[in-house]
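Sample entry was shown:
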Amino acid sequence: MNAPHFLMKPPHFPSADASRTTLHLLLLLGWVAPSAWAQTVASPTFLPAEGSSLARFPVVITCPTPGATIRYTVTGEEPTVFDPVVASGGMIDIARNMTLKAKAWNGGNSSTTASTTFEVTGDLSGGSQTILALVTNGQVMGWGNDDFGRLANNSTSGTNILAPIAGTDASGNIANAIRIAAGAKHGLLLDSSGNVLGFGNNQAGEAGRNTPTELLYARPVATNSGVTTFLAGCTKIAAGLDFSAALESTGHVSVWGSQVNGRLSNGQTANSRKYAARAETAFGVQLTGIRDIALGKDFALAREANAMEVAGATGKVWVWGYNNAGNLALGNTTTRTYATSAKLNSGTNAFITDAWDIDAGDDFSAVVRWKTGDSNLQGSVLTFGSRTGGRLGDNATTSTNNYPVEVKKRVGSTYSQLNNITQVSCGPGHTLALDGDGYVWAWGSNATGALGDNSTTDRNYAMKVKGPGNSGELSNIERVAAGGINGSPAFSTAVAKDGTIYVWGSNANGLIANGTISTSTYYKWPVAVNQLKTIPGFPTVSLASSVTTANAPGAATITAAVADPQGAANLQKTEFFVDGVLHTTRTASPWNASLTGLAEGSHHVYAKTTDINANVTTSLPVTFVIQPTLDSDNDGLLDSWEIQQFGSLAQTAAGDADNDKINNLAEYTNGTNPNSNADTNADGIPDDWAAWHLVQSTGVPASSLPPGGDPDQDELTNLAEYQNDTNPRLADSDNDTQSDWQELAQGTNPKDVNSLAAPFAVSAHKGTSNLQVPMTLPNLTPANSYVLALTDNVPATTGFLMTSSNVSGGPAYEWIDISTTGEHLTDFETDASTVNERSLGFSFPFYGASYSSVFISGQGFATLTDPGGWYPGDPMNFRAAMPNVDGHRPLISPYQQYLEPHVQGDIYFKAFPGYAVIQWEQVKLYGFNARPTFQAVLYADGTVRFNYKSIPLTVPEGYWISGYLSGVQNAAGTDGIGASWYTTSQQGLPIHSLAPVSLRFGSPPSAGGPWVTASTTALSGDPLDWTLSFQPSELQPGTHDAVLQLRKTAGSPVLYRRTIRLTVLPLGSSGNDTLTGTTGDDSLSGLGGNDTL
């Protein structure tokens, strides 16, 4: 929130502000060079003589010798008679770092060479959720939240890429700015003529206009309610929560916006004033003699000149506004509606003096003091106001301070006075301080990493900010700016001598400018902004956009104007980025990119041009809008597609115009012809049906898919699946646990989850023996023989029962995200075949043993003992069903695959009380452009849960689509259970899902004990007839279940599954009775002898 100004570097750097003011006065007076009094040629002089500036500025070159010709260079080379000429009293523009040399000639004589250096660094300003950057050529760039138009780029949509600040209209980008100031939801800029422009939120008039409430471009600030006169002749600006200020060259302060709590220093405490007027110290008495200004959230500071700027000046500080935390340094918390002098202590005339720089945060203030000859006032820092989070930096964190305290620094374990500071900038609860050696110090609240110390721990003393990559210390810095006003997530910025911009802290609104937005990812040390430097360089690139298809899916052409001072041959490449993603790379003209398939909404495009010397320039972005898809009947089908295909909008999404059993929406999505059921290879399957159902999972052309194929292994051929309108990729199309084969055989609907066979119910009295269950079932594939088994209802594995959230009665989907709070396992970034051992923090029971650690692989699994070997983290025999002795064991495998965490993706671990989470986040799948996200959760009670956030629904042929990639097994490899994303589980459980899904491995429920000895029978023919005889166990009266399962071969997928439910009745009459079973519910009571059921 600090008002930008020329860089001040006491005591050996003169104030460029003073030189600039003198220059303005001399020009106004029509100053010319005096006559020379000697015949020798005098050396040229510069005004200003040297110094640093935030933006381009003019330098006057004079020579006292009448008739002398002045020649100059800006490269540091010695001037010659062939170099450019400037008339005495003329000006040249300083727009970048340079060494300026000048030499005068008169006749055959020449002067000595005058030489000086100038720095033009640019500047930064941080608002609540935005960053403004002043480029040395006078342009202003902004990024972050753009609601209310706070980036002045004719948009309110927000951007995490750089956008130029514009004035008056879209083509009028500002090019002559010398100051910037970002407030909470508005911004200000000062141009080279001294005019102040406002933009963004204007509800309280903080942008300086009566209307409208939002300014999408920078507009001049008014000085009357009629908006007929405008603020001019200013040298500095500042922006707060909902009010603004500008320093006039006369030393007066103009303020505008909200008047609440005395913000405008005019005696008012309510409403607002939407035009600029001068601050007062009492009614009718204007504040004057001011050199610098700063605005906090709802209060203000102003300082008079320091003695190093103006001889005899005192550097006194004035304050006004809200004072709830003692942030005005008045010894109390009373709000002030007029400017008054800040106090150093409780003494009668003990005022703060010798101020060199000032700034203010949400509820605290900071003052830098310099005084020649006083070692205690050589860049020391005073703070006052709230101490919350250590924001006063005095090694304390409690209470408020109504009088100033001194900031302390810590070097090693030693605390001492912070000194040698030249500039401060306050955020909502933290402060940055720049010292005379180019290092940055920070203290205060650090919840978002804004202190740049690789932590989120608050600090109540100053320490140096770390360097990029958490290496060393940030150095060679010229300006700092802290952001996050009004409690917004805090961030920090800095600009280096070479114009490099650094940002750290919150990235909630794309403030890091790396093409991402995250409310939970904090950058805890400085990150360089690659797309922009405040000092422009070569080559140059600018963009123009032309929208060629206005409605989504839209199209546009982007054309770049690219140049290089060394000629076109020096250009290497231009890369076009669309919405932050690299789209096209050109290595030669034409420099353009064709964009197609664009979604509706605003699109931001920028280009990077690189020359053969590796110099990179990022263009200003262009923004264009693609209009919404035209779908007037809201059926999901583009109107133009419907007209093209059907000639009208009469068809619906669910319609099937060509009767190929693929509805119109699927045809539209798949890009197939909705009016053709062509069967190119005459196999009985329309090409479009094959493309929709089969090509997705195999990548094989439709004409090469045999009608007799069976990719889901449910004994229904592709042709049969088409004829019955079932899914050839799922053995159980409706996920009701009864396969398509079974439902077609028993006459239920394979596409209706509620249509399925109920348990086969029988009853018998206690003591019944020799029960028989006769049944008849059509054989859908008469050539096949089968194995029929009747078993008790105890699960096939003794360790776990597997349930899925996408089946009725399964567990709820429960994602436990640890991507921002868990430990980031970085070893996998260099070695995908390693494992990381981590402590669970509890004893984990697993197949009769207990484990306290887990060994995590980057390739989708974990073991409970060290796998050992050269490549312990690689998958082993992972396509086989579990258990298998050749695989990893003991094994926890949510998605054992060949993954590439060293190429892309992250793995995290976090142990909680009673459970631990392993998270694989967007880890690249080998040989396939997919990045699955999933996690394994281990609970102290022995339960295991796999949560799947994103898994590729289909993968190319050969990538183990039938492998059992998910499951668990014991240490011996003799007991376990698995599932596949691409077929069904060993329990027949389907997990193939578009939506997020969870698998739970828990203890099997009590089945009440077995009531039948397992029985197996071989079957063949059509129909399939069987009668299973068995001896029930001695059971108590009640209900008992067994399971009848039909498979093609032992171990193959279950084709028919039926529960046999026996109700044991008390003893009754005796006799021999018969019941023939049907497909419905059947019961017979009164049995007591040998009975046939």
Observations:
- DSSP finds six helices and 71 strands in the chain.
- Residues 892 and 968 are 5 Å apart (CA to CA).
- The first strand starts at residue 45 and ends at 47.
